[in-house]
Amino acid sequence: MSQTDDHTNNDQVDNGHVNNDHVNNYRRKFLGQLAAVTATGALGSGLVLNNFAQARPADEAVSSNVRYGLLIDTSKCGNGCDACVKACNDENGLQGFDRPETDAQWIRTVKLRDKSTNRTVSLPMMCQHCEFPPCVDVCPTGASFKRADGIVLVDKHLCIGCRYCMMACPYKARSFIHEELTGQVQGIPRGKGTVESCTLCVHRVDKGETPACVEACAKDGHKALIFGDLKDASSEIALRISKEASMQVRGDLKLNPGVRYQGI
Amino acid sequence: MQSTFITNITGIRTALLSLMLFCLPAFAGVPTPDIPKGKGDKCVEETDFMRKNHMELILHQRDETVHRGIRTKKHSFKECINCHAVKDDDNVPVDFKNPKHFCNSCHTFAAVKIDCFECHASRPGNDKRGHGKTNDSAMSKH
């Protein structure tokens, strides 16, 4: 249940791989700290660069010292704005087949209305990247998995398209690809017969960038979405959730989603 | 005794060699795959090794990338596609359906069906945001 358990488990997964990684990780961490000290020293006035250690080297495995998440302030969402959805579709090459029932949808906008007050709130809903993802629990082939850094993904090489995960997900976050696809975006493989969902733009995150939806939202001037490392106390997202009220959708299910909302 | 044996062997070898030379025009008629050359001087591993083991490298790297987020370029599938892109007459990279596609040229000959391109992009340049370009700067130091 606690994050400490999760940490230990993921460390064990890491341990299963080549031993050299540990040496390299240690060396990297040490050098990183050394560089950080030097940088802080150079800046002099106690100014710390938040994004200093963002880009992980391409040959280094993801670590459970990091947990990526999103903070979505729905009060900042523009009325009828769907910039995040469009950016997601564009980034990942999601195409429609004029069949809204089954077309792939990694982010959708959901409208909530409080019946007693008539207050309506619009919010983007995507894979919530749960700490205890039910999609992973039910997957019979191990295709649904959680990366060490908390990103929940589908290994499409292993997916048999049974769609148990779609039934298990309380957020209806996953889509099944019904049609043969062509013209996929390089680096974002998608194909008929597999299940997919928001990857938190893992291909961008691995380069130290933010997800496409977050970038598009900021570009539009709303800044309703913030992406960051929940475990890094100095990150913007961790600072915000430690000071401001935020909630998890269906928090009662105790899945501990990595996506949190404000203003709902 | 031994020298006779050696002479015999040499004789047989000569006979076989002349037979092979004689039959050469017949061998030349067998269609061989016309494998297009990739970019640069050589592949990431020796050509002979790649011929036999490319699938093992791709399989290994696939798990490393999907599950552990390791995105080194050396054995990455994306880089295979980028380096071995074959262009058509209009200078546009061809996709897997085209018989000239690097993977297709050999796999059709060997009658080995691959399903990589049911999901993966089979050519570079169809990336609207140009990830291939930004990748270079992020990963060149490794």
Largest chain-chain contact? A-B, 38 and 31 residues
Whole-number mean pLDDT of chain A: 86
The biggest sheet of chain A, with number of strands, parallel, antiparallel or mixed sense and barrel status, is: 3 strands, mixed
Could you give a short account of the major beta sheet of chain B?
Answer: none
Number of distinct beta strands of chain A: 9
Beta-strand share of residues of chain A: 5-15%
Order of helices and strands of chain B: HHHHH
The name of the CATH topology of chain A is Alpha-Beta Plaits
**Largest beta sheet: strand ordering of chain A:** 8-1-9
Rg of chain A, alpha carbons: 19 Å
**Helix/strand/pairing class of chain B, anyone?**
mainly alpha
Oligomer: heterodimer
User: Residue share in helices of chain A?
Assistant: 25-40%
Described by the principal axes of the CA atoms, the overall outline of chain B is: globular
Characterise the protein shown here.
The complex is a heterodimer of chains A (264) and B (142). Chain A has 264 residues and is α+β, with helices and mostly antiparallel strands. Chain A has 8 helices and 9 strands. Chain A has a single domain (68-262), classed as 2-Layer Sandwich (Alpha-Beta Plaits), CATH 3.30.70. Chain A is globular. Mean pLDDT of chain A is 86; it is low at 1-18 and 37-52. Chain B has a domain at 47-139. Chain B has helices at 2-28, 47-68, 77-83, 102-110, 131-139. Chain B contains 5 helices and no strands. The chains are: A alpha+beta (264), B mainly alpha (142). The interface between A and B is medium-sized, with 38 and 31 residues.
